[in-house]
Amino acid sequence: MHLNFLPWIILFLPLAAAAVITLFTLRNRQVSATLSVGAVVAGFILSVIFVKVAGWQPAVSEVAVNWLSVGPLQAGGGSLQVDFGLHLDALSLAMMLIVTGVASLIHIYSMGYMHDDPSYSRFFACLSLFTFSMLGIVLSNNFLQLFIFWELVGVSSYLLIGFWYGKASAADAAKKAFITNRLGDFGFILGILLIWGIFQSLNFVSIQQRLPEILNTHGGFIPPGSLPFGTTLTIAGLLIFCGAAGKSAQFPLHVWLPDAMEGPTPVSALIHAATMVAAGVYMLCRVFFLLNDDALQVIAYIGGFTALLAALIAVQQNDIKRILAYSTLSQLGYMVMAVGLKGPPAAMYHLTTHAFFKALLFLGAGSVILGMHHEQDIWNMGALRKKMPVTFWTFMVGTLALAGLWPFSGFFSKDAIIGQAFGQHNYILFGVGVFVAMLTSFYMFRLMLVVFYGSTKSDDAGHAHESPGVITWPLRILAICSIFAGGFVAVENIYLKQFPSETTEEAASFAHHLFEPFIAAPAAALSGLGALALGFIAAYALYAKADKDPLPEKLGGLSRAMRNRFYFDELYDATVIRLHNTLAAIAGGIDWCIENVFIGFIRGGTDFAGRGLRLVQTGNLQTYAFLFALGAALVLYLVLGK
Amino acid sequence: MSILTYIVGLPLLAAIVLAFVPRNFAVIMRFVAIVATLISAVLAIVMFARFQTNTAGYQFEQQIDWVRTLGISYHVGVDGINVGLVLMGAIVGFAAACCSWEIRSREKEFYILLLVMTGGILGAFASLDLFFFYFFHEFALVPTFIMIGLWGRGERKNYATFQITLYLSVGALIALIGLIALYTQSGANTFDIPKLTEYVRANPLSVSAQHFIFPLLLFGFGILVSLWPFHTWAPLGYGSAPTPTAMLHAGVLKKFGLYGLIRVALPLMPQAAQHWMQAIAWLALGNLVYCGWVAMRQKNFNRLIGYSSVAHMGFVFLGIATLSLVGITGAVLVMIAHGFLAALTFALSGYLYQQTGTLEIKELGGLLRKLPFIGTALVIAAFAGCGLPGFANFVGEVTVLFGAWSVPTFRVITVLACWGALIIGAIYMLRAVRNILQADLPAKWAGVTDAHLWRKLPFALLIACLLVFGCFPRLLTEKLRDPVSAIVQMANPVLAPTQPTATVQVDRINQSILTSTATK
Questions:
Q1: Residue A370: which H helix or E strand, with range?
Q2: 8 Å CB contact of B496 and A594
């Protein structure tokens, strides 16, 4: 059966919904929500059908139409051909399922969460636009199309972070997110240009095919006299990684993600936890064939450093959404590290499970925030366990999955990454991975204990209430996914189809896969579990009965630095931003001078010359005669004198 | 009669008609102006749709001899390059006429000048005769000065009029000297562009003549397009100009100089063009980066978009400087996209000014709540301006960047241009959006009202054009392929001899591919 038209429909349904809502149904809340939810749910169902029928690796893996075509000249010379196409393989199909699936649940949840918002329709229009852009990234078959949707995702994120644009902080956060992402995209587009310059193509498949040939033909140098080919490729890989670092908020471009929590909570869950921020990791896996060892090395360490940095900051945050935001940063660091350690399947595995449990945690946090009447400080909560049972239990599942308890999904995916580090004999990153696992367990149980256990810390916490079904049902479904997506369903096998490796064979049976981590790499699995236990014990000792945070007293300056996110915002303000503003000020000053002084000088000069020359016109005949004689004498001297 | 003659002639005819309408009937004048420009725009759309992609030469041609001894004739026609420009000009002309409601004094003179300006602009882009090309441009330029002087706004209106007149007159004069020198030096005794091009192809200009004439055209046209460092007239002039004038000048008339460079200077003076390309690229960087920085410092929104429009011209110059098919195609795409965009932003700022009486950014704020339609349109314009995919500007800019990257000596320039395009543009545009539309709404703007019904039309039309060409760039690139190829081949006389080596290289790669597959 020919189902190649299905991905096109899946891709364009949300765009159609966004367009219809914007143009026609802004006033009709119910129709808007139905359209938007319908588009994404239909997309999910069609995705499932497509994968069922065509399999994970469809026979026709690429469909494309020409989008932009310049040249070539008849005499040869440059030409630019850009397709608009879909690339269908295990990687993109699995990601398509995750995006539509998680997005469906969050769309439904939003119908409840945003119910009282006056701009309900606008919210759903933006959400649909986002879904379209994200699917575009996932399905792209070439670099420029990827970049196009990359930018569109950036703008939908901007619109959704700044959804409550009346709040100055939301407007600023949106701007910051967009510009920080643009910094990454600056590197990304340069990387694309560099790759286009080498391969004269933007298509992933044709670049992959030509790579070994060009490596052989040019014997390492292209063209003669320029950098060695390997160096060029490293630079290209790192430039491409810049784009990923921007979108996946890796150090040093991580500063925007916590601020992005100004957006509505479903947005934080969908965009800033489950899907968009994972786009960077997805993209790295997509272009993995281009990344050589040097580039991968850098990527791995940046990922590891981000994971560590963000986990440390998360320990001392008090806003429930910010804790989760830093946790997201930290987990993204894990994924990037996994790519850098040559383990794209592990990265994608963690991406998948993380999408479920982090969406669950954010939606749970949203449910708490709603129950607490928009209170976000965890030290004003407490003892919510009994008041919000469904939220509590699902949140607990999310926490256990994130902390990595066997047999929750998070255990398997995190173990895959730590095991990858161990397998590559990179013991520094292995240590970082284990230490971050401990921190993760610590800050998540800190959050659990303070919010759901202990004493009621404010009046709002006393009056908190459970959220309605439209909110709790998505929580339940995500909780089930968070438990089973790991050891039970073996999502990893899908990605191993894409990146066949010689070491890991496909786990044969269900039970085998469930216990496989302990058999394959017991050191990694056991140290992961040990870290989890250590983190939990520390959190329990400190926070089980605490009414205020005991850590600032114990850690002093370190705690202050953690709470202030190690002063990265201040550092950037004082250096990069100030430098750029100074350059702008200099340019502005020069321009002011040209506009006012220089032009004024011309005008004044003309004026002055006119006044001066007027004096010569005295009207006195003798003066004229004298000047005439003088002039004649001068001319005669010049002509005849020599 | 060619359809082009109608497109150009209708606004001019309407201007003559208006001369006979008593000055009390402002509504009738407005009606006549809108209808004339509307018909002109519809005809331009028809022409664009009926344009044959794969036929060589000019289409919709018409030629009437005028001064035979000098070789001057009224000759109009379009190829792939100016068909898009005429379309853009006609649509912007209609939008500008729609946006003229802010004019409340001396409507008769205003509409006559507006129609003359529109007709002149369209004539300049449709003309295939150097004389008429220049003549129509002056026909459109002079009303600009008068309109800024009489209907302009702000305290610096007179200074702005003075400066824009000074700059543009000097620029036009230098270009005129260059064109006349070209006419005499070529020895073809014709002003007809196609004939002149054919003649020069057979009898190239001497290199010394090229080196004399090319800078005249480059800087003469450059001043008209606000090439850095001759750009200060633009923000000042646009800041003081009435809305329709700014829309027409920044959107369409300004592109005249660029069109002149592409149509005349590059193909006729290839050696000089090669000589100057590096310099043009650096000057383009002055537009892109330096003027972007200056835009970051602006406190008045109109001046900010004025600088932004100057900055965007950098892409066109950079594309021209590549002398390559990709680069020049990108340059033309940017010209068309920026025409729609500049018209849109100036129309929006005009609406804001009409509602609030100020464009000082610190006075404004939170206006999106009061102006959902205008505010959304402004957000769209801001994103289109910082190169968001989906809008025509992105296609043009990215094509220029690809073109520039393929010139080995432009690598550093391309990197800096990317910085200007992606970072600086985003900073000042989003800052303006943040400070004008978002955050708190000052109490004094509680009374502003949004655009309603038909007043939305010009904005919606311009946004639609940006989207159409942004999503379907082949509408333009297919048309551009043949004419730009011809120009590039003339502008690169060295292209032909170097070509074989390039082909050999490709062949060698192909052979190695074949052998490697064969050995497998």
A1: helix A344-371
A2: no
Per the listing, tokens 């006393």 go with A462
Q: Which helix (H) or strand (E) holds A85?
A: strand A80-87
Is 70 exceeded by the pLDDT of residue A221?
A: no
| Alpha-carbon span A412 to A485, nearest angstrom | 9
Q: What percent of chain A has pLDDT over 90?
A: 27
- Reading the block at residue A194, the tokens are 């560099």
Phi-psi region of A51 (alpha: psi -120 to 50; beta: other; left: phi over 0): alpha
3-class state of residue A62 by DSSP: strand
State whether B474 and A66 contact (CB < 8 Å). yes
Across the interface, of A67, A80, A189, the residue whose CB is closest to B422 is A189
Closest CA to B346 of B230, B242, B202, B207: B242
In sequence order, the 6+-apart residues with CB closer than 8 A to the CB of B447 are none
Q: Give A552-570 pLDDT, tens digit per residue.
A: 777 778 888 878 888 888 8
**What is the Cα–Cα distance from A32 to A37, expressed in whole angstroms?**
9
Contact B390 A152 (CB under 8 A): yes
Q: How far apart are CA B187 and CA A406, in angstroms?
A: 88
With beta carbons less than 8 A apart as the criterion, state whether B476 and B482 touch.
no
Over the range B307-334, which residues count as b (16 or more CB within 10 Å of their CB) and which as e? Answer: bbbbbbbbbbbbbbbbbbbbbbbbbbbb
By Cβ distance, the residue of B166, B326, B488 closest to A80 is B326
Assign 3-state DSSP to chain B and report helix, strand, coil percentages, each to 5. Answer: 80, 5, 20
Q: Do A68 and B477 touch (CB under 8 A)?
A: yes
Identify the DSSP state of A3: -
Strand, helix or coil for residue A214: helix
Identify which of A68, A166, A588 has the shortest CB distance to residue B366: A166
* Residues B387/A154, Cβ–Cβ less than 8 Å: no
pLDDT band at A42 (very low <50, low <70, confident <90, very high): very high
Dihedral sign of CA atoms A511, A514, A518, A519 in order: positive
What interhelical angle do A409-423 and A522-543 show, nearest 10? 120
What pTM, to 2 d.p., does this model score? Answer: 0.90
The alpha helices in A573-620, defined as continuous H runs, are 578-592, 599-616
Task: Tell me the sheet residues that pair with B78.
Answer: B59
Q: In chain A, what residues touch B170 (CB-CB under 8 Å)?
A: none
Nearest CA in chain A to B156: A596
User: In terms of C-beta density within 10 A (0-12 exposed, 13-18 middle, 19 or more buried), how is residue B501 classed?
Assistant: exposed
- Here the ipTM equals 0.89
Q: What digits encode the pLDDT tens for the residues A283-313?
A: 999 999 888 888 999 999 999 999 999 999 9
Which residue reads 């934080």 in tokens? A268
With CA atoms as reference, the chain A residue closest to B403 would be A78
pLDDT for A366-418, tens place per residue? 888 888 888 888 888 877 888 888 888 999 999 999 988 878 888 888 888 88
Q: What is the DSSP letter of A163?
A: T
Distance CA B389, CA A140 (A): 14
Query: Going by C-beta distance under 8 Å and a sequence separation of 6 or more, which residues neighbour residue A431?
Result: none
Maximum CA extent, chain B: 87
Question: Which among B170, B97, B111 is positioned nearest to B143, based on CA atoms?
Answer: B111
Tell whether the model's pLDDT for residue B503 goes beyond 50. Answer: no
**A582 Cβ contact list (under 8 Å, min separation 6):** none
